Amino acid sequence: MLRIENLSCSYKQIVALDGVSLHINRGEIVSLIGANGAGKTTLLRAISGLLKPKNGTIVFEDEDVTKFESHDIAKLGIAQIPEGRGLFSILSVEENLRLGAYIRDDDEVEQDISKIYEKFPILKQKAQEYAGTLSGGQQQMVAVGRALMSRPKLLLLDEPSMGLAPIIVEEIFEAIKSLRDAGATIFIVEQNAFLALSTTDRAYVLENGKIVMSGNSLELLNDERVKEAYLGA
Q: Rounded to an integer, what distance in angstroms lies between the CA atom of residue 126 and that of residue 110?
C-alpha cells in the first residue's frame, strides 16, 4: 500500500531523514521505533504532505504522492493522528468528529459517528462537551475517532501512548488492534518500544534519520540490540 524509497528531509541545514526506505502492506500494523529526535515525526509529516522531501519518493497505492499537497493526500485515504492529538479544544466532541468527515460526500456520516460511539462509549456521554475539557485519554479517543471518520485506507499514529495512564494506553491499543482486525492498515510511531513491538506485525528502527533495523516485531522484541537500546535490558 505504501512504499518509501531513499527519502531524505531537512530542516534548513539539519538533516532529519537520510535515505529512508520502507514499505507497508495492506492490512498490516507496522511500527517505527526510535529515540526522541530520531526523525520519526518528520517521516509521518512527509507521508502526509506536511513536509516536502529533499530527495526520494513516497508511493501510495502505486501513485507517486511525493509532491502532493496534504489535503490531496488526505483525499487519497491517508489520515494522521498527530502527536498531541491536535483537537479543536473549543469545539464539542461531536463537532471534532464531524470535521474528520469533511472530505466525504455521502450520507453515511451519522452511521459512522454511531460506530465511533459504540467503540468509545464515553464519547457518546460527552458528545456535546468541549474537547478541551476532556482527559488526555478521552482526547486521544476523539482523535482516533476523528481520523476514522474520513474512512482512511492508511492510518498514521504519532506517539499514541504519550502522556496517558497505563490503563488508558491499554484501551487505546486494544482499539488499534480491533481496527487492524477489521481490515485497517496502520503505521504507528511510538517511543514505547515494548508496546509498539508487542502490538504490531513488523517494525523498523530509526536512529539519527536512518533505518538501522527492520523485521518481524516479535523477533525485534527479542533482539539483544533492541533490548539494550530501547527496552532497558
A: 17
**Angle of the 136-148 helix axis to the 109-119 helix axis, nearest 10:** 150
Single-letter amino acid code for the residue at 158: D
DSSP summary character for residue 11: E
Can you read off the three cell numbers belonging to residue 132? Answer: 478541551
d(CA 59, CA 206): 20
pTM for this one?
Answer: 0.90
Q: How far is CA 12 from CA 37, 54, 138, 141, 169, in A?
A: 16, 11, 37, 35, 35
pLDDT tens per residue, range 40-54: 999 999 999 999 999
The length of the chain in residues reads 233
Write down the residue that cell numbers 512527509 correspond to.
Answer: 46
C-alpha grid cell for residue 161? 501512548
Q: Which of 119, 122, 157, 156 is nearest to 139 (CA)?
A: 122
